[in-house]
Queue: 3 jobs
Job 1
Amino acid sequence: MRTSWTRHHFSETVNMNLQKNKEGVYSAVAKATEQAGRPSESVHVVAVTKYVDSSIAKELIKTGIDHIGENRVDKFLEKYHALADQDVTWHLIGTLQRRKVKDVINFVDYFHALDSIKLAQEIDKRADKLIKCFLQVNISGEASKHGFRAEELPEVIQALQTLDKLEMVGLMTMAPFEATDEELHSIFSDMKELQADLMARQIPRMPFTELSMGMSGDFEIAIAHGATYLRIGSAFFE
């Protein structure tokens, strides 16, 4: 009996913390969205569950989360299959090796880290549905970051136009972890300008209407500069 009670009490405590954290994140997102003069439905929160197992992810979904993101293919597949009965949208947000594309791509709703033409070609080869992709842009020029440089994009886009299983819904970037607020404003502003330029071109299967940027520590600034998908992890599990 005591063991049963302890497990129940632990589960109840976890659920309360997740609910409290979820409400805190959503409240902060709503406030930042309102301050930016944007409609509330224009910003989506992707809960990054790499920190927890499938059981905790399921409890988080119960709080009202409807977008789940994973960095690694193995963890993505583990949660996707464990939570197959959950009505959520699945985001693969981390680096994808070409040899793993066939294992995962047809379970993905949004892929946030398209960072090479060869990877795009492999996705096109393996996909049996239209895959919504974000071009990853290394807008900050950080050597450790993946992604295309902004000046490469015209050539990249031309190469991608022949691939009919990919839809370029937007751009994604990761700001340096140690960036100041001033640097964040500059990085996210540059991304918004780049997005606006690409949208204006009206390229078939490349609407570029979305911006995937902003994480637990900088999402308010990202929202101010037009982020539509936030990748938030640690704030849910503190």
Job 2
Amino acid sequence: MKKDIILCGVGGQGILSIATIIGEAATKAGISLKQAEVHGMSQRGGDVQSNLRLSDEQIYSDLIPQGCCDVIISMEPMEALRYLPYLSKDGVIVTSSKPFVNIPNYPDEQKLFEELASLPRVVQLDIEQAAKEAGSARSANVVLLGMAAQYIGIVSTEQLREAVATVFARKGEAVVDANLKAFDLGVKG
């Protein structure tokens, strides 16, 4: 079994934390993992993306070819569309329903959502609002991971949940609890 995942968003939204959590879960499950990141613009609010390739067999490349991505996990709807050429015909997009408008020429939101609605498999949620409901506005990325858990498949939802606890353990019990609550809200959708 294999899963090719593209994580994308804007610098500072927590894309690399999601990658770390999935990597932790895969490592504990004995799943092979290759990862490639682009995060040089993160300090300026630019595009951040990570290719994650998970497999129970050997992986030879860390880059996902166009048309082969199983899941696009996006903190921002415009960024999800940026990576659309990589999505497989059966792939799914899991994205925030709330745009992060940080550029003057941000696309028309109505057109953006019309394009997303025209795609066969898109799951959306206002992850920022859900994170606030979980008690931690900074946990929107973990809400998004919870939403995507069922589509990742090669590691279980419970393995991802355990990895959330492991990754945030050094920040204390309150942070772990808030992130687990955020993850669970995302799973429930």
Job 3
Amino acid sequence: MSTRAVLEVIALGVEDAVAAQAGGADRLELVTDIAADGLTPPVGTFVGIRAAVDISLRVMLRLRDGFAAGDVEALVRTAGELRESGADEFVLGFLGEDGGPDLGTVERLAAELDGCRWTFHRAIDRAADRDALRKQLADVPGLDTYLTAGSPDGVDDGLPTLVAEAARRGEPGYTQRLLVGGGLRLDHVPRLRAAGIDAFHIGGAARPNGWASPVSVEAVRQWRTAVDG
């Protein structure tokens, strides 16, 4: 069985997607409005990227900045439109005012996604209790990944948490894959790989010239080499 690590790259459009695939990315996270930490892209953007590359695409379901769901009906409609356009993998994550998961919204969306695989994103890093959140979400259909830095402040602070969670793989609430992202640097990768973590998520790191510039094939290739160890 292959143990090749997953490398996921944020793509804002077709140019990013083509470059990321050329550099060796396994999967893309599709977003718009990176200033708001990534919102749902237009359906047309998804369709264009889907036509341009043949790797997995996970589409963000998030219509506003922050970790509150906002208009749940609009989220459900958006998910339905994306599915009708061929999207079959997603990224979402919402917290209630108590800092726990917004289970009502997550379950509504999971029902709309109807078995599609999805990532619970970095809202986990803002949760009041990570362990409780994981156990509450353990049986929600389709959830196969947590995108996390281990800390709201990024991987530098979150490393001990990530290593500890990786060691619990297989326990109730810990069967999902850890996808590490958020201030991730190349020098973090060996320690994370040694802990058994096999999925990595990059955004700014794929763009040495900043978010105004497209993904760099060379930067992605450098990450591909690093995560393959």
